[in-house]
Design brief:
The protein has 79 residues and is α/β, with parallel strands linked by helices. It is built from three helices and three strands, in the order E-H-E-H-E-H. A three-stranded parallel beta sheet has the order 1-2-3, covered by helices on one side. The protein is globular, with a radius of gyration of 12 Å. It starts with 9 loop residues before the first strand and ends with a helix.
Length: 79
């Protein structure tokens, strides 16, 4: 299986505190993508940010956001 190179790309992951979102963030980072995590769980999201930066040497950032609140969603979208 060939490895897709996502170096220079940024992937936005919402709801990543656990489960599929967490695994997706790690998988995209493994392929070289920088990661933007949008979640309401700051503690768990920051754990994954640290893991991504340490393990894969890609950039990762956390945006606190409840995606059910339109006003909060606009902030990461503008950044």
């Amino acid at each position: 299986m060939s490895k897709t190179d996502l170096t220079g790309k940024t992937t936005i992951i919402s709801g990543r505190a656990s489960g599929i979102g967490r695994q997706a963030a790690l998988t995209f980072a493994e392929h070289g993508s920088d990661i933007a995590i949008i979640d309401i769980n700051e503690v768990e999201a920051n754990k994954v940010v640290s893991e991504i930066e340490d393990r894969y040497k890609t950039r990762a950032i956390f945006f606190p956001c409840d995606i059910s609140d339109y006003g909060m969603v606009r902030v990461p979208a503008v950044r």
